[in-house]
Every structure is written in structure tokens, then in C-alpha cells.
Amino acid sequence: MQDCIFCKIVAGDIPSKMIYEDDDVYAFEDVTPQAPSHTLIIPKKHIETLLEIGDEHRDLMGSIILAATRIARKLGIAEKGYRIVTNCNKEGGQVVFHIHFHLLGGRQMKWPPG
Ligand code: 5GP
Ligand code: ZN
To answer: Is the CB of 18 under 6 A from ligand 1?
Structure first.
């Protein structure tokens, strides 16, 4: 999508620090990390919010979770623990409308989240 920051990152038009890539998924460091380890995992294809996910995205969603597990291991945060967060729409805290999964680790997480 033309004006989407994350589509531009996938295309290489905006630079990013790549952590992982496969045919359908791209992962990169968040520019404003909220934890010592903060990776964004996104589908290469533009999907605005979780609400657009349908049956046709089952494989893609599985690929994203598998990528998250691989990345958590690779970054050394798997054993101590980590968190995956997806914000949906305004009250959910979504700012970038290309679906993304925050993978956070490297510190004790709190509950409830803010
Ligand atoms: P949201 O609030 O939509 O769930 O999260 C958007 C995330 O994208 C934020 O954590 C923000 O720091 C990150 N972000 C926004 N623009 C860029 C960018 O140009 N590069 C990178 N690496 N991260 C970005
Ligand atoms: Zn996009």
C-alpha cells in the first residue's frame, strides 16, 4: 500500500534493522523500543488490523507465531520469557495500520498492561 510505513519497510524504501525474513513474514527492530528486546513481526502483505484476518490467513498467522518463537530463541529471550502484543484500533493502542506483532523481552513484564 502506497502510504504505509511498514509496506515501505518491506520494500526496502525505509531502512530497518532486519531480524528475520521468510516468504511471507518480515521482522525488524522497533525504532522506539519498549523493552531491552523489541522486535516487530509483520506480514509482507498489507493487512490493516486484526479485524481483517479471515480463514485465508490461517497459514500466515501460524507462520508469524512460528517466526516469533524462532526469533525469541535467536535473541536469547525464550527461556526467561517474553510477550507478544498486537494492538487493534484506537483504544487498543494501534498507531500503524499494517498489522504487526510486538515481541518484547529482556525485562520483567507487568500485568495488567497499560
Ligand atoms: P502500534 O502502536 O501501532 O502497535 O505500534 C507501532 C510501532 O511501530 C511502535 O512501537 C513504533 O515505535 C514502531 N514504528 C513506527 N514507525 C517505525 C519505523 O519507521 N521504523 C521502525 N523500526 N519502527 C517504527
Ligand atoms: Zn502496509
So the answer is: no
31-63: pLDDT as tens digits? 999 999 999 999 999 999 999 999 999 999 999
User: Rounded CA gap, 49 and 96, in Å?
Assistant: 9
**Torsion angle of C-alpha atoms 77, 79, 81, 82, degrees rounded to 10:** 40
> Is 84 a pocket residue for ligand 1 (Cβ < 6 Å)?
no
Q: What CA–CA distance (Å, rounded) separates 21 from 35?
A: 22
Look up 100 and say whether it is catalytic: yes
Residue range 5-16, pLDDT digits in tens:
999 999 999 999
